[in-house]
Sequence to fold (344 residues):
Amino acid sequence: MKLAVIGAGVAGLAAAHRLRQTEPSIETVVWEKSRGVGGRAATRRVNGAVFDHGAQYIKGATPAIERLLRDELAHDTLVDIARPVWTFNAANQIAPGDPNQNAEPKWTYSDGLTRLAKELAQGLDIRLQTRVHHLAYRGHAYHLLDEQGSTLATVDAVLLTPPAPQTQAIIAASELPPLAQTTLVHELAKAAYRPCLTLTLGYHQPLRDRPFYALVNTDKQHPVSWLAYEQLKPGRATNSQQVLIGQMAPDWSHDHFEDELPALTTHIAELVSTLLDEDLRAPAWSDRQKWRYALPDSGADFQVLNAAQPNLFFAGDYTAGRGRVHQAIEQGWRVAQVIAHHAR
Fold:
């Protein structure tokens, strides 16, 4: 079987990695429209500082995830963020977080969370900066087509792993049996996403020491959803700078999605200053990331999607219904098992 995996995010890489281990006879190629792997498990470098501007860490939620991180991939930059996550509310009241949750490891990598994707990608055939615009199902084979209609590859099976709205656009533009196409478009439409603006603030001066690594808003009534101290990740290189990661609430992100960086910096630095009761209104630099499809609010049914059309498969955080790195891995494993069954 020749398999094309569309998307080199965590779910797609986890599926391809698992199939390489368990079904080496399947010829798998991963197609990715961007310049790198990992999707929202993303790391950036600005002014000598390394920071994660998407997912913040990985929960070792199951023994299988723990084995993957600690034994199978076993990279020497894997670290546990020791300090806890605390909470805050709309009134800027900060309180200790859940002790049980804080007792669980918060895994990341000292050189950035994108290390996870790079390790999963080891040994895989990945075609970067190549966008698959649509598919054409002809003669029991799938043709991968670019925006001009030129064929990129012809394969026996396809796994689609981009966020549901992007996957829906590919399916809607494809040549598929009408009933299957209608079923897939309808099911994918059930997965709704919330946007997220991530703003990174860099400071040359020391910041006040805190007993927590990060703060999470629990009443969903604050413009800031998440605030983290990047330099508190063990071994993280920030070039002697203090780096704050602010991830904004969905409604606030929606309303300010197209704001210019200077205006966003002023606004968010003021919000952060008020929350922390510390004057942080003048960062030395700032950086923005616009995540249009940050987290799924609702999901699509894994079984419906993967039974609609022969050898056409689907996986992602939207088939789990929540945007968590470990769940994207698990969905990749889940669909790999389905693909392996069909290949035998």
Notes: The chain has a mean pLDDT of 97. The chain has two domains: 2-39+118-192+298-343, 43-112+193-296. DSSP finds eleven helices and 20 strands in the chain. Residues 161 and 247 are 24 Å apart (CA to CA).
